[in-house]
Amino acid sequence: MNKTWNNKAWFMVLPVLALVAFSAVVPLMTVVNYSVQDTFGNNEFFWAGAEWFSDTLSSERFWSALQRNLLFSFIILAIEVPLGIFIALNMPKKGLGVPVCLVLMALPLLIPWNVVGTIWQIFGRVDIGLLGYSLEAIGVDYNYVRDPIDAWVTLVIMDVWHWTSLVVLLCYAGLVSIPEAYYQAAKIDGASRWSVFRYIELPKMKRVLLIAVLLRFMDSFMIYTEPFVVTGGGPGNSTTFLSIDLVKMAVGQFDLGPAAALSIIYFLIILLLSWIFYTVMTSSDQKG
C-alpha cells in the first residue's frame, strides 16, 4: 500500500528558518561585506578584496594567538574529559545521593561567565583573595597578574571548575542508561573493574563523549569572557586568545576590515576542527 506524505508540515519550520536567517545569516553576510572593504569614516567604503585575509594570515600576531588557543583547548580536553569520566563513574546510581550529586554538579554551570571571571579574579588576588593569600602565606610565589605561568594555571583551573560538570552530567547520562543485566553478566563472568569499564561502560558513553568533546572544544576555543575579566589578555600577551585579539581589533582599534576577516577565519577554523573531531570520533565508533 502506498503511503501519502503530507509535506505541509514543512511550513511549520519556516518561522524557525526565518529566525535563523535573521539572527545568523544576515550578520554573517554583514561581516563578509566588511571583510572585503575598507573605510576611512563617514560611512564611505572602498573595495579591498582579499587584502585583509592576506594580512591576517601573514601576521605573527594571528598565529601566536592561534597557538595559545590550540594549547588551551588541548589542556582543557586532556583534563576535563578524563576527570569528568572518573567523577561520573563514582557517582551513586540510586538513593538520595543521586539528586544531591546532580545538583552539586549543575551549580557551576548556572553561574554566568562574567561572574565566574569576577569570582576567580578576586579569589586569586594575593591581597584579598583566599587562593592568592593562602599561597602567599605558605611561601608560594603566585601572582597571575605578573607571571604568565600563574595566569595560565589560574585560567585552566577556573575552566576545569566551571565546565567539568558538563562532561560529568553527559557521561552520567550514558552510564545510567546501561541495563543492570550487563553488570550482572560481567559479575558472573568474573570480569575485572577495568574490563567492565572497557567493554560495557565506555561503549555506552561514546556518543555522549562525542558531544562532550565537541562542546568543550568549541567553548574552550571560543573562550573570551573569563580570561578577559581575569587577566585582560595579560600579562603581556600571554593569555591573549583569538577572541580577545578580535575584540581589541574591532572595538579598541576600530579596524573593521581586519577584524571582519579575522572573525571569518576564526569561524572557519572552529568549523574545520569541529568537523575533524566529529569525523575521527564517529569513524572510530563505527570501527568499534
Task: Please give a structural write-up.
Strand 1 (37-39) and strand 2 (45-47) form a beta hairpin. This protein has 288 residues and is mainly α. It is built from 12 helices and 2 strands; from the N terminus they run αββααααααααααα. Helices cover 71% and strands 2% of the residues. The protein has helices at residues 14-35, 51-57, 60-89, 97-106, 113-123, 130-137, 148-176, 180-188, 193-221, 225-230, 242-252, 256-287, and strands spanning 37-39, 45-47. The model has no long low-confidence stretch (mean pLDDT 87). Strands 1-2 form a two-stranded antiparallel ribbon. The longest helix is centred in the C-terminal third of the chain and has 32 residues, at 256-287. Helix 1 (14-35) packs across helix 12 (256-287), helix 3 (60-89) crosses helix 7 (148-176) and helix 9 runs antiparallel to helix 12 (256-287). It is globular. The chain has a single domain (61-287), classed as MetI-like (MetI-like fold).
